[in-house]
Amino acid sequence: MASSKLLSFLLLSLFVIFIFIDPSNSSPDNNFTEAQSRIKSKKVNLSLYYESLCPYCRSFIVSQLVKVFNTDLLSIIDLRLVPWGNAQYVKPNKTIICQHGEDECYLNTIHACAINIWPDPRKHFNFIYCVENQGLHAEDNLHSDGADAVWKACSAALGMDQKLIKNCYDNGYGRKLLLRYATETDDLHPKHLFVPWVTVNNQPLYDQYENFIAYVCNAYKDKALIKACMPHSLHVTGEKLPIPPVCYAERR
What we know:
By secondary structure, this protein is of the alpha+beta class. The protein has a single domain (42-248), classed as Glutaredoxin (3-Layer(aba) Sandwich), CATH 3.40.30. 50% of the residues lie in helices and 12% in strands. Strand 6 and strand 7 (203-204) form a beta hairpin. The model is unreliable at 9-29 and 31-37 (pLDDT under 50). Residues 1-26 form the signal peptide.
């Protein structure tokens, strides 16, 4: 009888130990990691194709796109900023011509360098936000020294190494980055018609770009878990909204 009880006790003990060491049984840490993986795999691709001196791009970045960082939206978004916009390059030497002049080409390149150096969107967006926000309160056509002073003031305020950005621009790597953005923008299907040009999962929002949060939430399957997607007003109705101002592309 005693040996039977002892055998039962040993079997029960082995069963309990098996439960705790079996990798198929999830721990709280595993559950958290799995939840993170699910969110990552379901993330929505949000892309902004823009140019640095288009006033409507500036306004969108400073007033609208910043909401991604002021809410929990960033946890479900893969954000991509593409600073090329309506610029063009002329073959065979690929001379770059920007819609708003040389200052725009310069700042587009500075943006491209910042994105490359600090790939974390929270890092490079802060820099781009700062540059564009200053531009909203400056003259439309900045002098070269003015454009230079703007980004340097932002990098200093944010503790971002100016030398890294300057080296990227001076050694020509920034231009290479810009030409890659040119190819990406030119390969858009359908072609972009203006900037800011916003896409959600590679689908353009056209003149509904200011309603991008609704489209992001609509594309995300577990929207009930995201506070920014909770308001009833955040839904795609298909109704005609006022067309926001844009910088139209000039086709050649």
